[in-house]
Amino acid sequence: MSRTFKLGVLAAAVMAIAPAAQAFEAGDFIVRAGAVHVAPDDSSDVLTVGGAEALGSDARVGVDANSQLGIRATYMFTSNLGVGLLAATPFKHNITGEGDISSLGKVAETKHLPPTLTLQYFPMHSTAALQPYVGVGVNYTTFFEEKTSGALEGLDIELDDSVGVAAEIGLDYMLSEQFGLNAAIWWADIDTEAEVETLDTFDVEIDPMVYMVGFTYKF
Ligand code: NI
After folding, report:
1. How much distance in Å is there from the Cα of 3 to the middle of ligand 1?
2. Is 16 within the bounds of a domain?
3. How many Å lie between the centroid of ligand 1 and the Cα of residue 188?
4. Could you tell me if residue 5 is inside a domain?
5. pTM to 2 decimals?
6. Within a domain: 9
7. What CATH number is associated with residue 53?
8. Are 112 and 91 in contact, with CB atoms under 8 Å apart?
């Protein structure tokens, strides 16, 4: 057998046993799309009027969960390090009475966008089909179209934007050179100051866990 032929056989054998996917390398641009679920671990200050606990000593508000379509992109600047950006269609959350005012139910709603920028570390070799990663970075959340309803209907409400730490873990499983599956979980420190007409300004912690499952496409 010629040397070229032997090398050809060897190469074919290696390709047969190696995973089909050639995963992440410097310069790759990876896009992931799927469903994103935001589950707040929420708490708020006690609501007061002129410094008095006029609605009860345990009158608080909560923020419910919401799911939207999310898109995330990673740019790999080495085969192990990338910078990731999370974007999504606007989330819409109901704000409800809690504690002494839980019987009020929904008292307001808000939309928000939580763009999140993270530095991501992919520990596996670039040829691995299975690519777990961890990331840490910053979340910026902007609230908009806040409005009151129910018992607070007609009162002005405004929620301040939030800047805080975000952390994530995720996993890409590449089924081919370009295409794969993704699952990821984040935690983000999202706190806002709420101004509701007639009430004193109060803090609301949202600090959600964010879950996403979807598809991965590598350019
Ligand atoms: Ni917080």
Report:
1. 65
2. no
3. 8
4. no
5. 0.83
6. no
7. 2.40.160.20
8. yes
